[in-house]
Specification:
Residues 20-295 form the Carbohydrate kinase PfkB domain. Helix 7 (172-185) links the parallel strand 9 (157-161) and strand 10. The protein has a nine-stranded mixed sheet, with helices on both faces. With 312 residues, it is an alpha/beta fold. It contains twelve helices and 13 strands. Bound molecules: adenosine-5'-diphosphate. Residues 192, 194, 223-226, 229, 245-246, 249, 255-256, 259, 281, 284-285, 288 line the site of adenosine-5'-diphosphate.
Length: 312
């Protein structure tokens, strides 16, 4: 099984014990990592663009170190990868400053030729997000929608999570118009209540379920932080899957990304949606008890090997 993750990975800088530490992260990239770490038998592809500079090459090495396939990770001759720095104030509150407005990932669609676009139809699933949409050059969006349409026609399932980042959009309406287009193409939608609250003012999962009822998903998966995940199947049947909330939360960055990667991996491995949610929630719950978007590999692999046969 092949799963493609479309988006942007950036270099991450943060102070740790007075030293500047470098890492790499980005929403769909994080999902690609967690899918591969949890389901090594699946092939995880990161579909994006980087530069040809040393920092981009480090990112490429990091990606390969996670056993992610880089066949569709293009190297732009002049552009660079985006960068962000995490600042933590005296109260432990984190803030982020980004340098990504001219990143290589924006130009993905002009680097992806017809023959590679045809090869992408071999994917069983591709995941993209609101961040992927916001990052792509505006003039390339039609080409992007055409690509998704072609993949869908060829049988590739399309996954979508809004992952709304207000700073990347001109305004709410701009984002909402594109998200609604994305919901039209998505087979599996994995939105969070928080995004719907910010964009549409919805306060309950029920409001999201009715709003999304006109779209035809194979599966709708609604995340709601530490509260139960809601599933809606293709017939409109609604169910809730609960899990134990984590009390000692260290860093919630990438909870939803880890959830998405593990959910899709489990789904493609043939697990029932309820079991996919349980596994995804367990992994996301683990990730938020550790610092950083991509947690230490060794401890994560202990988690994966600890899965009981009843969860597998
Ligand atoms: P996002 O990162 O997209 O905002 P959420 O905050 O909804 O996503 O979290 C995604 C998933 O991470 C949840 O569905 C849940 O499985 C897990 N999660 C988040 N917060 C907690 C928590 N406090 N305890 C346990 N699991 C959590």
């Amino acid at each position: 099984m092949r799963v493609g993750f479309i988006g942007e990975c950036m270099a991450e800088l943060k102070q740790v014990d007075g030293l500047l530490q470098e890492g790499f992260a980005g929403d769909t990239f994080n999902s690609a990592v967690y899918l591969k770490r949890t389901f090594p038998a699946l092939e995880s592809y990161f579909i994006s663009a980087i530069g040809s500079d040393p920092l981009s090459k480090e990112m490429l090495e990091f990606t390969r170190g996670e056993s992610i396939n880089t066949r569709f990770l293009y190297a732009h001759p002049d552009k660079h990868i985006g960068l962000y720095k995490i600042y933590t104030d005296a109260c432990g509150e984190r803030s982020f400053t980004y340098w990504r407005n001219d990143s290589a990932a924006k130009g993905l669609m002009s680097l992806l030729n017809e023959s590679d676009a045809a090869s992408l139809t071999a994917m069983d699933m591709v995941l993209f997000s609101g961040i992927s949409l916001a990052v792509l050059n505006r003039e390339d969006l039609n080409k992007f929608w055409r690509l998704l349409g072609k993949l869908k026609d060829s049988g590739t399932q399309i996954g979508f999570d809004m992952n709304h980042r207000p700073a990347l959009w001109k305004g709410r309406n701009d984002a909402k118009a594109l998200y609604e287009k994305a919901f039209e193409v998505a087979d599996i939608a994995l939105p969070g209540l928080e995004d719907f609250n910010f964009l549409y003012g919805f306060e309950s999962v029920e409001e999201i379920v009715s709003f999304l009822a006109p779209f035809s998903f194979k599966l709708l998966v609604i995340k709601n932080g530490s509260r139960a995940v809601t599933l809606v199947d293709a017939e409109g049947e609604v169910s809730e899957v609960g899990f134990t909330p984590v009390k000692n939360v260290v860093d919630t960055t990438s909870a939803g990304d880890a959830f998405n990667g593990v959910f899709l991996g489990a789904y493609l491995s043939g697990e029932k949606p309820e079991s996919c949610v349980k596994k995804a929630a367990q992994c996301a719950g683990f990730v938020i008890q550790h610092p950083g978007a991509i947690v230490d590999k060794a401890s994560y692999s202990d988690l994966v090997s600890s899965f009981s046969p009843s969860l597998a």
